[in-house]
């Protein structure tokens, strides 16, 4: 554990990265993750209550949130290069990341996009890259390594948000990806306590990429009532329905029940996506107090292991306890020598 490649690559204390989580991030939350020893990540619509309508507005709001984050932490943090369904903004976001000195970029893999020019720009600027396929396979992991990615995320079907199209659990996909490539792998999907971290490492991952476990925290901007619902619920409560490109899961809300009923009646994935209100449905369900039934509450199977609302620091201390113990031992040994 003393020579963890992920901490060395990203310049962080612990090998834990916070997923971008759509509306659920802002400068305060991301800085809290980085200050606690992980890598915080500004997500799409970070700090906003309304999606920007133009590329200029998108870039302006992200630049402002990056600068707010820098004012709150001197530690590394990251952001994705895809923030909306308008993929033409990717080049501008790559330039923004480099201009503002963001240390890490998340590359969400989409078919038909040539990432090589972006990767070359990042390499030249010293920006580290984390590659995450929507549906991880040994083949796309090898392609990411050939592209020059620094780290690959292996996401299992246990995750929250848009789940992979192949129904392969986290602890089945992680060793497949770890065996396929020589660069470090992070496990994602359903990891919400130290047992999940230990299992990930045993299967060949060198760190974890988490989302749900950091939602019911003091610093997260999610509605307080939704935080409590996550604490009070388990994976057995979750509803699963089809959408684009694959599946989605939600805690029970009026809308989520309607989506499951539509799915059972044979509605198309496009119809389900439209009925779910896209990202707007998440904002209603998770961000706006008292409106959960109008939207959906996107979480992963790891909610079963979340038992209280805690600080970001407490969550990271819990998940990274083995790394903290190893670092303490190394520190004591070094001083004794």
> How do the helices and strands follow one another from N- to C-terminus?
HEHEHEHEHEHEHEHEHEEHHHHH
CATH homologous superfamily of the largest domain - what is it?
Answer: Aldolase class I
So, CATH architecture of the largest domain?
A: Alpha-Beta Barrel
Largest sheet: 8 strands, parallel
Reading off the top of the CATH hierarchy, the class of the largest domain is best stated as: Alpha Beta
The coarse overall form would be: globular
Q: Quaternary status of these chains?
A: single chain
Indicate the mean pLDDT.
94
**Spatial strand sequence of the major β-sheet:** 1-8-7-6-5-4-3-2
Helicity, as a percent range = 40-55%
Instruction: Please work out how many helical segments DSSP would assign.
Output: 14
Judged by helices, strands and strand pairing, the structural class is alpha/beta
CATH topology of the largest domain: TIM Barrel
Radius of gyration, in Å, reads: 19 Å
Q: How many individual β-strands?
A: 10
Q: What is the number of domains?
A: 2
GO molecular function, one term: monooxygenase activity
Organism: Uruburuella testudinis
Protein name: Nitronate monooxygenase
Keywords: Flavoprotein, FMN, Monooxygenase, Oxidoreductase
């Amino acid at each position: 554990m003393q020579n963890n490649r992920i901490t060395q690559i990203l310049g962080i204390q612990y090998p834990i990265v916070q997923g971008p989580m759509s509306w659920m991030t802002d400068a305060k939350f991301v800085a809290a993750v980085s200050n606690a020893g992980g890598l915080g990540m500004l997500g799409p619509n970070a700090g906003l209550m309304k999606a920007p309508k133009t590329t200029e507005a998108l870039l302006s709001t992200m630049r402002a949130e990056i600068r707010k984050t820098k004012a709150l932490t001197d530690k590394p943090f990251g952001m994705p290069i895809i923030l909306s369904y308008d993929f033409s903004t990717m080049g501008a976001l790559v330039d923004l990341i480099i201009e503002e000195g963001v240390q890490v970029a998340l590359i969400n893999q989409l078919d038909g996009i040539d990432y090589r020019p972006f990767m070359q720009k990042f390499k030249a600027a010293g920006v580290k890259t984390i590659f995450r396929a929507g549906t991880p396979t040994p083949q796309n992991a090898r392609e990411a390594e050939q592209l020059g990615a620094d780290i690959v995320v292996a996401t299992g079907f246990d995750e929250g948000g848009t789940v992979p199209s192949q129904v392969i659990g986290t602890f089945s996909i992680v060793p497949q990806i770890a065996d396929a490539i020589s660069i470090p792998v992070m496990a994602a999907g359903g990891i919400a306590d130290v047992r999940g971290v230990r299992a990930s490492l045993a299967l060949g991952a060198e760190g974890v990429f988490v989302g749900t476990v950091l939602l019911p925290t003091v610093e997260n901007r999610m509605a307080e009532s939704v935080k409590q619902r996550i604490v009070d619920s388990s994976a057995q409560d979750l509803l699963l329905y089809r959408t684009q490109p694959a599946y989605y899961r939600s805690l029970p809300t009026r809308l989520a029940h309607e989506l499951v009923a539509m799915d059972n009646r044979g509605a198309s994935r496009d119809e389900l996506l439209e009925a779910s209100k896209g990202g707007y449905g998440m904002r209603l369900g998770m961000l706006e107090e008292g409106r959960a039934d109008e939207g959906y509450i996107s979480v992963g199977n790891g909610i079963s292991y979340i038992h209280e609302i805690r600080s970001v620091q407490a969550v990271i201390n819990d998940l990274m306890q083995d790394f903290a113990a190893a670092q303490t031992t190394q520190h004591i040994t070094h001083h004794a020598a």
